[in-house]
Design brief:
Oligomer: single chain
Order of helices and strands: EHHEEHHHEHEHEHEEH
Largest sheet: 6 strands, parallel
Distance between the termini: 6 Å
Number of helices: 9
CATH superfamily of the largest domain: HAD superfamily/HAD-like
CATH class of the largest domain: Alpha Beta
Number of domains: 2
Shape: elongated
Strand content: 5-15%
Length: 237
């Protein structure tokens, strides 16, 4: 067991309610990109495994854990557009705007981060969202005063399930990877933590089933609101 010196949080499904935030946002983005082309809109919904009448994704959707770099080429094909940097930037810009409109937190993330900040832990976001949008949402939720870093898929360290953004955070903090824990809701979060040599704390608030991840996690909680009580001093996991 190792005493924790840092907590690295996934964002969507961990701090932010995935379906309530990105369900409405994705519908708005797809409608804007498709314009008056109903067939193109239908293709976008199909490749996204999106249920428009319910404004939510199937758990197997590539948008649940992936970044625009992952699903963007399929969207470009559905729209007959090149899958270039300009298109991916347009997707990120539209999602940033619409995501803020429907932004819904999970539990009380600001209170939770304030607790650990007050205990001297280093805190960060490691998300497959774009860094700029992650910072906007962190500001909107009152999280920014407690965060020491924000790493997105476009921050230069790669995206999850790769270990890059987790390893980079440990380097910034000047700690060994095993002194940090990734807090997340998906297999991508687990893989990133394990590949970097960090601990993994599983939260059960994401859009996809997680029972198959329980045995591999160092700690399992129902939500981030449970973390202060579960990580009592000394904070070991």
């Amino acid at each position: 067991m190792h005493e924790l010196k840092a907590l690295l949080f996934d964002k969507d499904g961990t701090l932010v309610h995935f379906d309530r935030t990105w369900g409405p946002a994705a519908g708005a983005v797809m409608r804007e990109l498709a314009g008056s082309d109903a067939a193109a809109l239908h293709r976008l919904e199909q490749v996204s495994e999106y249920l428009p009448d319910e404004e939510r994704f199937l758990p197997s959707s590539p948008l649940v854990a992936g970044s625009s770099a992952h699903y963007g080429p399929a969207w470009a094909l559905a729209l007959g557009r090149p899958a270039d940097a300009a298109f991916l930037s347009e997707i990120d810009r539209l999602f940033s705007r619409e995501g803020l409109r429907s932004l819904t937190p999970l539990g009380r993330p600001a209170d939770m981060l304030a607790h650990f900040h007050g205990r001297g832990l280093r805190l960060g976001l490691v998300t497959n969202d774009a860094e700029a949008n992650a910072r906007l949402q962190a500001d909107a939720l009152g999280l920014s005063p407690f965060l020491d870093l924000v790493h997105g898929y476009d921050s230069g360290f790669g995206s999850k399930p790769g270990p890059g953004m987790v390893s980079a955070a440990a380097d910034v903090f000047g700690i060994a990877p095993h002194e940090a824990a990734v807090v997340g809701d998906s297999a991508h979060d687990l893989a990133a933590a394990q590949a970097a040599g960090a601990r993994f704390i599983l939260v059960r608030t994401g859009p996809a089933p997680v029972d198959h991840l329980v045995d591999a996690a160092d700690l399992v909680v129902d939500s981030i609101d449970d973390l202060p009580a579960r990580l009592a001093h000394p904070m070991m996991v």
